[in-house]
Specification:
327 residues; elongated; 41% helix; alpha/beta; binds adenosine-5'-diphosphate; 4-stranded parallel sheet
């Protein structure tokens, strides 16, 4: 299949993630390499609705591969949730001569791209940019590895003080209803347990953790808790311990937004570069309305409907590894 596409627009939307800049760079350079022109759209869908759009040359994306955040800025845009807002976005796209869109973002951003593509018959390609790793059809997402590394760095430091005072720490990490950061962060930092939304309905995770005799051979304990309405968050568990197990000296650390920042790891830079180049391959092949993902080290194209609608399952083997290794 060939393509009549001459100009692509690129935007970052929703929660920012380290590696988004590497993805912007890759999409821009791969597009120019393939003879396409590129327009950068600022502040996500907001910039499309208001016409905040600028032509991008190769040098516009120089010296950004190592930077966290996104040079295109990001935003949440209520107007784009309405048909009138999307009509304005489409009119601006046409005015700017943009034939196709590359959207870098999470679940919400790709949902927006899907609706926009359906309504206006615009080719859209999505790149999974989120620290939460919660998109189906890709093994990892851009920003996830960097966030994991930030978490283990923080937990290593908390461990020093936790050990000195013989305390039980609940460390809250991001995840938005997905336990990937909590579970893998716990394995990688040698934490004693992870409380994840995926298991919140089946078992009382705190009771299980205490029952397993978490202090048999240890002078401190760290539990990673995924921030989620389903788990109740770290404060909830600290309160419970204070009431139900008052013998423990308990503390809470909420890592918050520091998990979103920082220079992307090699893994995220390479992932973003591969997916960005593959997004342009997809456009050149005439593909549309797919998210570019990675599975078993191979680039895959996942229809938006599949990537958005399905919940990505936690690997149960990792839950067992954490349990076995935290005795
Ligand atoms: P993320 O991409 O990180 O999941 P959000 O869920 O906040 O972030 O979505 C980012 C933006 O994508 C929203 O502010 C909105 O502009 C757009 N969007 C999300 N869901 C939809 C939808 N169902 N229809 C249209 N636009 C949407």
């Amino acid at each position: 299949m060939g393509t009549t596409i001459k100009c692509i627009g690129i935007l970052t939307s929703g929660g920012d993630a380290p590696g988004m800049n590497a993805a912007i760079r890759a999409v821009t350079r791969a597009a120019i390499y393939n003879g396409l022109s590129v327009k950068g759209i600022y502040r996500g869908y907001k910039g499309l609705v208001t016409g905040e759009i600028k032509e991008f040359k190769s040098q516009n994306v120089s010296n950004i591969i190592q930077q966290g955040g996104t040079i295109l800025k990001t935003a949440r845009c209520k107007e784009f949730m309405t048909p009138e807002g999307r009509q304005l976005a489409y009119d601006n796209m046409k005015k700017e001569g943009i034939d196709a869109l590359v959207v870098i973002g999470g679940d919400g951003s790709l949902s927006g791209a899907r609706i926009f593509a359906q309504e206006f018959d615009v080719p859209c390609i999505g790149l999974p940019g989120t620290i939460d790793n919660d998109l189906y059809g890709t093994d990892t997402t851009i920003g996830y590895d960097t966030a994991l590394n930030t978490i283990i760095d923080a937990v290593d430091k908390i461990r020093d003080t936790a050990t000195s005072h013989e305390r039980l720490f609940f460390v809250e990490v991001m995840g938005r209803d997905a336990g990937f950061l909590a579970l893998n962060g716990a394995i990688a930092s040698g934490a004693e347990a992870a409380i994840i939304p995926e298991d919140s309905t089946d078992v009382d995770q705190l009771e299980e953790f205490i029952k397993n005799g978490f202090r048999k051979s240890k002078s401190s304990s760290i539990v990673l808790v995924a921030e989620s309405g389903k788990t109740g968050g770290a404060m909830h568990y600290a309160e419970r311990v204070k009431n139900e197990y008052p013998q423990y000296d308990v503390r809470v650390t909420i890592l918050g937004h520091l998990q979103r920042g920082g220079s992307p790891t090699a893994h995220d830079r390479i992932l973003a570069s591969r997916l960005g180049a593959a997004a342009i391959d997809a456009i050149m092949e005439g593909q549309r309305n797919v998210m570019v993902g990675i599975e078993n080290d191979q680039v895959v194209y996942v229809p938006f409907a599949k990537a958005i609608k399905n919940d990505k399952p936690i690997n149960r083997e990792l839950v067992n590894v954490l349990r076995e290794l935290s005795i």
